[in-house]
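Quick one: structure tokens for this chain, please?
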Amino acid sequence: MSPQRTATVTIAPLRRSDIPRCVELERELFPGDDPWSSAAFHAELDQPGNHYVGAYLPDGQLVGYAGLAVVGRPPEVEAEVHTLAVDPAWQRAGVGRTLLRALLTRADEVHAPVYLEVRTDNDPAISLYQAHGFDRVGLRRRYYQPSGADAYTMARPARITESHRD
């Protein structure tokens, strides 16, 4: 069954019980690179300051996940998107956009600029990030291994509210 134009998902904290599904998606989505292992997901969930969320269908099926690291303390706080992945059957249905917005909401709560790396050949992801205020600020040659694919570094400035400026 293919998804409708827009998926109805619930965003909630990623659960340890979701890690096997995350590993499965990693292997499917990133076969030419170094997909995250179960241990990598456990380490990310254990790290203080990390914010990991899942996108769940009404039946509870995990169809995407995303993670953000928030480091430092104001005014030197910053955030980095560590991962954002969507089941191929649910891509282009709004799931990635919904996950990204959940991460950006967390970054905005602490008034952090946000950084990420994205494959230079991943035009849909680049467009998504640009639509959410990210600009290319660098190029990392051979960033992804073992494929050797290049990555753009992208950044979005901190969202500062009037009340935060005082």
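Residues 129 and 135 are 8 Å apart (CA to CA).
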